[in-house]
Design brief:
Elements lengths: L8 E2 L6 E2 L2 H11 L5 E2 L6 E2 L2 H11 L1 H8 L13 H9 L7
Antiparallel strand pairs: 1-2, 3-4
């Protein structure tokens, strides 16, 4: 008996099946003219905003965690916090022109 190949991605408009999510995206865009949403971080495309939001939470959680807790991280260059780096770089600037 041969191996069964399951088409995992199904179009919600016409129930056509696809082997990859990218094929489903292309079909949805070109056949049904459905707007596609794109991740601002990496450019990955999604049919629904809820899928993009899930992707951002799961795939880009490290970047969000970094921004949330940025004072607890040290910069690779100098071993100081980001705010200390800003303070150090702006120390020589003056408001007197």
């Amino acid at each position: 008996m041969g191996l069964l190949h399951h088409n995992k991605f199904v179009c919600e408009y016409d129930n056509q099946k696809f082997k990859t999510y990218d094929d489903l995206i292309a079909h949805t865009r070109h056949v049904h003219h459905h707007p596609i949403v794109k991740c601002r971080e990496c450019g990955k495309e999604f049919i629904h905003e809820k899928d993009r939001l899930h992707h951002v939470r799961e795939e880009h959680a490290k970047e969000v965690d970094y921004r949330t807790h940025k004072d607890s991280y040290k910069t690779k260059k100098k071993g100081i916090s980001p705010q200390e780096g800003v303070n150090e770089n702006t120390r020589s600037f003056s408001d007197n022109f």
